[in-house]
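cron nightly-structures :: item 1 of 1
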Amino acid sequence: MSILIACCGLNCETCEARIATVNNDDELRRKTAAKWREMFNAPQITSESINCVGCRTSGVKFAHCEMCEIRNCVIEKGFETCANCSEMKTCEKVKFIHDAIPEAVENLNKLR
């Protein structure tokens, strides 16, 4: 079984939002929303907004996925993920994620 990796390299399989969506778990949605509101100082995150099956799969996604510059860049270039891009290591668009979550870079390197 392959692991579902987001365009930026995050592991969707372990994402609390995806788990809550797939399992229709409203309690996990509430906990995730509260955690992310505090983590990202984002009061607009509500339990109702915690619905996503992954940015590279068909189905429900966060509202911000349509505006995500990383995802849009990958799509515009015709790639599957940032792993397909020769600029990945120096890209300013994905730098903040890769600096904060080194696992994302490791996931992408495994796809190369």
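cron nightly-structures :: done
Residues 12-111 form one domain.
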